[in-house]
């Protein structure tokens, strides 16, 4: 703190002794130190003499300067007298224990009765009051008031006060009214008043605290004089600048706050109730508030803190009678003063009675209902909307408004009813809640919407702030009033415009709103309904957020899901009163009993329901867009909810019933129908539901049933207990019950065929259900269950698209009937028996044809059901049925040039004479249409190691547009009408569309889509039958479709799908076809064709240069170059894909061959194929066979490498192409290493084998070293390979034989080309 403080126990004698010792030892030092202290005191006093920036008049400044000079002279004279050994004591002496020259104004005090001197007042107290550390400020204030209290006490005990006053005034003027205060106290008060006007660090807080304590403790301070001193010391003159004025006004505010907190005014009033000090203080505070806008709110808080300590009598008699307060209230409504309104509310709360001073601000009589009435809100509207001046902080008036809008009784009542939801519907009306509801309606409608939302950005900001302030206490039932149409539209407008400065405000509001509903399903439902209802279901789309999507995905309990479902249903039927809780009817809690013996229908309530809804707002109800959102949201309720199976089934059935009622049926009388049989009431919107929405309901119903199929278990009867209805049976019985209600009919009329088809499907499902129950948990039950789902999907598809599926429905019913009659055993029979041979193929072929006929125009849920049926029946699919599916994959709208020949050859797709992968035909077409390009230099071989899975996606990132040339009618020239319509019905329909439409894009895209759906079935077939011999048939046909040029032209998605199925389900399958029905010649033929594709050279695409205008030659050349680059890239990608397909197919065929364990004699045909490949590789440049591919083949199948090693050595040694010889070195060394293992057990055998090949090896080495390659990499390969051969030969001790084979010329060439490698080998001969 700068100096040691004096203990209160020190006596005046001890002090004088200490002073005498100090003076005798350090006279000169003490003199200098006192001068420094006084100088510092003068500087500090001068700095604190006036508020910062206050420019006094010249006359006043001159007086102060003269006074300061006289004080200095007087102090200096006193010090000189003391140094000269004068016997009288110094008026103010420096503390001998102080080590800070600015710590004191005078020396130690002596006893007041004997010496007439006062204790010191350390200046460091004032310095510490401005510290940023609160503890330092508090300690300084406590020390200051303790010292001032001690000084004042001794001052009052002095017999001659005038001598002290005359001796040292310490800047305290005699006419300040504080005559009963010691000079130190008067100085401290003046300095504290000036300190609250300083903006240095925390000076205002510290000096205000320092002012509060002396005023509250020292009773000698006259309050009237102090108020005058504050006003005079911090007065504002015309010469002040803006910042100086602000600091003076803030200083007065802090000084008044210190007085209010001190409690002295209350004590003075209690001692003299006629005193006018309270009224004067009120006038002073209100007068200060009226000077500047930013002073109003803090001044009101100062006054409110003061009023809290006053008795009601004093408030009424003095505060309310203050002239400045009455004038302030009188002008508040016109000026728009929110602080006056806040003060009036708090004063009214304090006195609990009406008063004339409030007449313009508060209603008479006062009540919350009157306060929030339309007239009064209009009257105080200016006061409320002007509270925006303090943004981003929210004005204090809104906390008071919040407490009035949401009293504790309403909040507690909402909490109680939320915890006991079952009693909420039956509770009686609460007057407090009704009043709060009316208040909120008026407040939102008149002020929020009428004043704020239709005004400036600042006031819109205030609207968001008000709702955020209310949210913590706001019951869920009130949120609909705040999230009104105007509020939601304003929020959407701001969020959709990121450039708006309110965008961050709206985003923050949305985040806080989401946090508010986080753990409360009732609040989440209320907010979701409000946002979507007032945005026509487009809140997320307009705002580009996922707000509503996130809200709808957070329901995790059955109560929350049911509540959300109930609100969605009420929103769809346009009910104005949305219940807060789910229905308490029996059907809402558990599945209804659909027994047919209950009463059928009653529509007596239809007219009643119509009359009850006459008061609803709007004639057309909710928009179609909003209803569309409701329908889409229904099926998504169960997606994220983690419910128990029983709870999920209950919610599922509620959704199913609503979609069925709104999508399939209409009420012929009124909008309500009550069914006694189902024990519930069904409602429809007042306006007829559009057909599009009905179709949407049916589509969601299909999706709901399809999703249930993925998670449910087949029905069974276990332990003699009947299992609950599954969704399919529940829906069919519900549908049948509604059809029997006279006043309910289907939303559209059906023709006779469709009506019969619907009835037939209902009967079929009933039979299937009985058969499934009888089957128990067997595999047949799963088959029947999948058929039941397909039957229901078919029924809904007929209602969705009448006139299109009646024939397919009849076929499906026939298949189901035959399946049951045979009990599904005949479907798995091996074909023995004449009757079985006639009936079995018919059932499965009809079923496959039916499934294929449904695929082109089926919905996603129906396709899912088709795939499930095919999954359980695919093991029984006949070869004929499989070929029908493969025919779809290979079919093309644009027939090939040799279509007639192809049609005659492809009647049997499994015929061995068919050209595999259409290789010859493709070559013929390319020779006719394109010029053969020269292959690149043989030394620069392309790299085919890249797999097609990487090539295809990079080749074409986007699906190529459909070729408009396919729409030419001439494309059908190769096929007559009879041949066309002999095809299956589904393909014939696509061809018909192609003929009838001017552009072929629609037909082509439909065919591609159809192929993709059939591929899904084929993928299921391959997955369920991995080792079936028919896998080979599937592979050959899929491979032909993959390499067909039209496949890549039509769709890259189809191309990638084909490649993915071949790779994952055939090549990488865990099982391979092992059946003996696949003959070795067929495998050898397939292997040969694969190897031809691998070795096939790439043909570059080159366009024909047309005659070009010279003026446009440059542009035409650029376009031609770009076109050629595109063609070249596409051709190269396709070439690599086909090459990789052939390579992987080769590995797969060899795997099958090895698994069959053929004899060596039988395998000669396979070896002949590879012999031809090696001969072609070494004898011609045309072969593009990759040596890496051959290495893989030899490494995976060593028996091929061992049998062909002699031929490999011979051809590599005699080839006329040097680069071929070098390329084959890696293949030769790897094969030699596996063929001639070097170890103790096999040394003799290996030596014999090596001797067999030494002649060819020496011939090969001579050829290599005799003409070394030019490229460094290839020379290194030669040295490396020769070194390996030398190492193996020397290990078998055959060095001499090899050297003899090389001869002198060969050895010389080896020394020249191989150097040390050959010399080391040669030394091993010794």
UniProtKB/TrEMBL annotation:
<keyword id="KW-0175">Coiled coil</keyword>
<dbReference type="InterPro" id="IPR007015">
    <property type="entry name" value="DNA_pol_V/MYBBP1A"/>
</dbReference>
<feature type="coiled-coil region">
    <location>
        <begin position="747"/>
        <end position="774"/>
    </location>
</feature>
<dbReference type="GO" id="GO:0003677">
    <property type="term" value="F:DNA binding"/>
</dbReference>
<dbReference type="Pfam" id="PF04931">
    <property type="entry name" value="DNA_pol_phi"/>
</dbReference>
<dbReference type="InterPro" id="IPR016024">
    <property type="entry name" value="ARM-type_fold"/>
</dbReference>
<keyword id="KW-0539">Nucleus</keyword>
<feature type="compositionally biased region" description="Acidic residues">
    <location>
        <begin position="920"/>
        <end position="946"/>
    </location>
</feature>
<feature type="compositionally biased region" description="Low complexity">
    <location>
        <begin position="104"/>
        <end position="115"/>
    </location>
</feature>
<feature type="region of interest" description="Disordered">
    <location>
        <begin position="580"/>
        <end position="620"/>
    </location>
</feature>
<protein>
    <recommendedName>
        <fullName>DNA polymerase V</fullName>
    </recommendedName>
</protein>
<feature type="compositionally biased region" description="Low complexity">
    <location>
        <begin position="45"/>
        <end position="58"/>
    </location>
</feature>
<feature type="region of interest" description="Disordered">
    <location>
        <begin position="1"/>
        <end position="118"/>
    </location>
</feature>
<feature type="compositionally biased region" description="Acidic residues">
    <location>
        <begin position="962"/>
        <end position="978"/>
    </location>
</feature>
<dbReference type="GO" id="GO:0005730">
    <property type="term" value="C:nucleolus"/>
</dbReference>
<feature type="region of interest" description="Disordered">
    <location>
        <begin position="920"/>
        <end position="978"/>
    </location>
</feature>
<comment type="similarity">
    <text>Belongs to the MYBBP1A family.</text>
</comment>
<dbReference type="GO" id="GO:0006355">
    <property type="term" value="P:regulation of DNA-templated transcription"/>
</dbReference>
<feature type="compositionally biased region" description="Polar residues">
    <location>
        <begin position="590"/>
        <end position="609"/>
    </location>
</feature>
